[in-house]
Amino acid sequence: MSTSSANIDVKEKVDHLPLSPGVYMFKDRKDRRLYIGKAKRLRNRVRSYFQESGGHDGRIRVMVKKIKDLEVIVTDSEAEALILENNLIKEHQPRYNVMYRDDKSYPYICVTNDDRPRVYPTRTVINDGSKYFGPYDSVMHMKRMLETMRKAFGLCTCAVSRKNVDRTKGAPQWHSCFDDYLESCSGDWDMEEYQETIYKVERMLNGRTDALIRDLKEEMSIASEALEFEKAARIRDSLRAVQKYSRKMKMVADKKVDRDLFAIKVDEEISEACGVLFKVREGKLISKFHRFLKNIKHLEKGEMLQSFVEDYYTGQHAGGIPDEVYVSDDLVNDEPLAQYLWEERGRKVRIHRPQRGEKAKMIRMALSNAKLLLGERKLEKEKAARKRIPHSVKELKEHLDLDRLPRRIECFDNSNLQGSDPVASMVCFVDARTRKSEYKRFNIKTVEGPDDFASMKEVLSRRYKRVMNEKQQVPDLIVVDGGKGQLSSAVEALKEIGFYGQCEIIGLAKRLEEVFVPGRSQSIMIPKKSSALKLLQRVRDEAHRFAISFHRNKRSKRTIQTELTQIKGIGEKTAQKMLTKFGSVKSIQKADIDVLQEEVGNKMGQRVYDYFHTEA
Question: Which residues belong to any copy of the UVR domain (predicted)?
């Protein structure tokens, strides 16, 4: 274990962990959970994070450096660890776990846990014993299902309603509804008949339509033979409604099997993935479901897919465990999931990655859906980004009559002291906000003396040659600090390297805050109170600040090197220590020999004193 990666307390905890299944939680110095995982053998799994030979990606290495504490919960089996891990991830939302990015909560159909259950739509899942069917990708699909059930089984509007369910009192509250006036309210049915109807509703929600149709035909036949023609007519209507619904479901398998198919697709550009589930019951595709995954950088598809599958089965769902589970990629470790499904269903559930045939075709169809959803997601994000464009950016485009919105602005400024230590800076603003990771510093190499025009020309040539050679992002607007002279030099530089015309360029003169544009003799005066002018001023001032700080830093280093480090035995580290103590080289020069010897020792202090006073 690397002592630089984890403190001694965590190291001791890892050494004493049991070789048992369970869940581990890494925490930072503020006791926030960084990552939650499960393990078949806790000690081995947790120790692997801190081994130098682990071959971890950058994301994990960064996380390990932040670990200050460790908490574990031992379980009896991997299946229990799987459930506990999922619940803890949802509760604490750790930064380094794969998370789900949903712009909405998905709709479910709830069948309440009451003597007379209600059936109603909800987006809130409560662990109260009720059954939740879904989630549904489409609200319209869910509404059609509710309407079909109401027509097929005669459930009245107060039974298929959320408004009449009082969850705080633990029981449904029966109220009069429109059907009550027609003397057809299901609230008046006897208990046995009502519960039998709810059982049929659940079978339909589970996709068991073939078996339901057979039972309804048998019930209708029995009612007819018993001369209960009114009851037989009601069952006939139910039968027709269920048959109509069943015909609309797509037949995707020759065998009447129950099957869940999971697929994952990744979009590197937006750094998100989409997981898609096709739920097949009795050979028919009864529903599909998708979720977007974030925190996927450096993760393999198998890891993302495993997270998606485990999250689905350990969450709230009443669709039942199928006979078969098929996946688009191999899972990293399917043992805990297989054990969990076996325990839930009572017999083995096959988890397999199909390579050919009908199942592989279904997986390809799920992947196509995931690709389509990611494409729509990307368009939504682009549309949202366009809506977030600040007013100052839009206003700047109007005032300067630019061809495109100046969303990315790069601004340049020079700095020198009477020609010494000439430097330049480039700052970057994106949507009116600083993008400090893309700031640049330049040492002027070809210009002698205080020549701002030549310095500006050199810097822009170097910057945009690199942009072209490395195919970096081209700015929407280049701003140079200065008037016509600096702008002319900048334009000349861009023309020489063949970059001119790829984006707009302006000069901003400080005295009157005039804006100069190439090919236009008169300057543009933007109103003083305009947000566009304030944006330009912020950009220019930030470039100036950045250039000044770079120049001072360079000058300070040169002073240390040319003065203190020329003294025998004084290196940069000692020189910096002395400057921190005394504040400047001048103060060191004036210091008494006793003070110098106290700071750097008798021998070194004498040398420093002799150097300055001999020179004097």
Answer: 210-245
